[in-house]
Automatic annotation (TrEMBL):
Pfam families for the chain: Bmp
CDD domains, alphabetized: PBP1_BMP-like (cd19963)
Provenance organism: Methylorubrum populi (strain ATCC BAA-705 / NCIMB 13946 / BJ001) (Methylobacterium populi)
Signal peptide annotation: 1-29
InterPro entries per the UniProt record, alphabetical: ABC-Purine-Binding, PnrA-like
Gene3D superfamilies with a match to the protein in the record: 3.40.50.2300
Domain ABC transporter substrate-binding protein PnrA-like: 39-282
Keyword Cell membrane in annotation: no
Cited PANTHER family: ABC TRANSPORTER SUBSTRATE-BINDING PROTEIN (PTHR43208)
GO cellular component terms given for this protein: plasma membrane
Keyword annotations from UniProtKB, A to Z: Lipoprotein, Signal
Domain of life, source organism: Bacteria
Protein name (Swiss-Prot/TrEMBL): Basic membrane lipoprotein
Length: 366
């Protein structure tokens, strides 16, 4: 998820607001000072038991509570409009909560407004695009984890014929599809990935139709960048394999799921809340763009169908990424032969967020 419903007219904001989420550029402000100890609350876009995006945040909330010895109340099903977000957040603030965690792209503008209205409150927003002296948006480099899951898919597929159920053809989704194919080619050079876009982040009916269509075309491993476990369930019903997104999907399809790209938001939230409490938190001017090393996404790998030799290669590549390897390093061309990254170069964060092309081997809808 990068917000559940991102209008095409807003996509230009992604290039500006998220282009440099690493926070490596620009001047940093003075550390934010919180009045009193941190009192943390969380606002969820959807249900906390959705099996995907929302539940990943809910599980991180529980782990964060345990690690910090605090209580973090949560309210869920707060939709992406100011009339829903503002009263939920302001109720927490009126009750003395001074660290508010949001969980949606569509919260971005309202969180910005609220952060300006309440300058003594710290705001954090997962998949947001706005930042400020007391506001930091954060997201993860999921192309790293899908690259690794692609290796699992390529290592198990008999013919190298992979499929992918994706939500919307945005940069944040295309980078997962492309990375999946790049990872698969590490172990199966002739692998292809056929992607079907459902047009929705959370629509089990469309996800089922897409997964069944892919299975009908002879695909034997299905990846996903949608919010429900439906592609995993379909794969298990069809006797083929799958890789998951958001959480460890072996919970829903233990026989089919080979690998999952999993969110560990507590690895970001725990140290960030500690910094806020200590008066050392300096929100990155472009937000936090988290790699595996930084503690955002990681993998749950691997299912028993993945050969030991492939598991070892995946773990070696994971360590290489932690040590600095870049998934989108040159030379790299798109499937039409256009050079996208020259030899010795690395795709910039700005180009990642506005990715509108596919690597060789990806087969997409026309």
């Amino acid at each position: 998820m990068l917000g559940r419903s991102v209008p095409l007219g807003i996509l230009g904001c992604l290039t500006v607001g998220l282009a440099s989420l690493s926070g490596a550029d620009g001047a940093t402000a003075a550390p934010f000072t919180l009045e009193g100890p941190p009192k943390v609350a969380m606002v969820l876009f959807g249900p906390k038991n959705d099996g995907g995006w929302g539940q990943a945040f809910e599980e991180a909330r529980v782990r964060t509570e345990k690690a910090l010895g605090i209580q973090i109340p949560v309210v869920d099903n707060i939709k992406e409009n100011a009339s829903a977000i503002r009263p939920a957040v302001e109720l927490f603030i009126k009750r003395g909560y001074n660290v508010i965690i949001g969980t949606a792209f569509g919260y971005s503008d309202t969180f910005k407004e609220l952060s300006q209205k309440y300058p003594k409150v710290a705001f954090l927003n997962g998949s947001g695009t706005t930042n400020g002296p007391n506001l930091e948006s954060f997201y993860g480099r999921t192309y790293e984890t899908h690259y690794l899951c692609g290796m699992a898919a390529g290592g198990v597929s008999k013919e190298g014929k992979l499929g992918f159920v994706a939500a919307n053809p945005f940069g944040v989704v295309k980078w997962t599809v492309n990375a999946y194919e790049l990872g698969a080619k590490q172990v199966s050079p002739k692998a292809t990935t056929t992607v079907i876009f459902t047009g929705a982040w959370n629509d089990p009916v469309k996800e089922r139709a897409a997964a069944e269509a892919l299975a009908g075309e002879g695909v034997d491993v299905i990846g996903q960048h949608v919010d429900t476990p439906t592609p995993q369930i379909v794969a298990q019903e069809k006797g083929i394999y799958s890789t998951g997104h958001h959480r460890d999907m072996r919970e829903f399809a233990p026989k089919a799921t080979l690998c999952s790209s999993v969110w560990f938001w507590d690895r970001y939230l725990i140290p960030t809340i500690k910094k806020i409490g200590a008066g050392t938190w300096e929100p990155a001017p472009y937000g936090a763009f988290l790699s595996i090393k930084d503690g955002g996404p990681d993998i749950a790998c691997c299912g028993p169908a993945v050969p030991k030799a492939i598991v070892e290669k995946i773990q070696a590549e994971r360590q290489a990424i932690i040590d600095g390897k870049k998934v989108y390093a040159g030379p790299l061309s798109d499937r039409d032969g256009k050079e996208r990254v020259p030899a010795g170069g690395v795709l910039s964060d700005a180009d990642l967020w506005k990715m509108d092309w596919f690597v060789p081997g990806v087969i997409s809808q026309k």
